[in-house]
Amino acid sequence: xxxxxxxxxxxxxxxxxxxxxxxxxxxxxxxxxxxxxxxxxxxxxxxxxxxxxxxxxxxxxxxxxxxxxxxxxxxxxxxxxxxxxxxxxxxxxxxxxxxxxxxxxxxxxxxxxxxxxxxxxxxxxxxxxxxxxxxxxxxxxxxxxxxxxxxxxxxxxxxxxxx
Length: 163
Known about the structure:
Elements: E1 4-5, E2 8-16, E3 19-24, E4 28-33, E5 47-53, E6 56-62, H1 63-67, E7 79-85, E8 88-94, E9 96-104, E10 108-109, E11 124-129, E12 134-138, H2 140-143, H3 146-162
Parallel strand pairs: 3-12, 6-8
Antiparallel strand pairs: 1-2, 2-3, 2-9, 4-7, 5-6, 7-8, 10-11, 11-12
């Protein structure tokens, strides 16, 4: 859920391809550079694998694949946004992270029918209106369902036990 404080939302802003997204900062644990990812057999196609993040094994998803949108080639600006969903830690690969932004609640609306985005509508919480751009606000609890988080966690634990 978006956590509203004093009539505003605090969001982490990132890009995938040409689209700009925002997620509630309360779900973001940290942002790290792209790390070496260990492939996980039997994982869904949008799961890249796992990384060792300061001693914790974290599953990594390719957010562009999950959302079904094109991304830019990975490079120096590629980041992993480490998030908490259903008390589990998951990393999301994004093209770049640009800023942390406060948006007044009156500048956030339901997604209007006229807005065109390649992202499936059920992943979108709303649209943040800024002076010169629009942000697609993702609902991280819908991007990964509770069942998928549980499955990712089970696969991650199997990887830890085999290591």
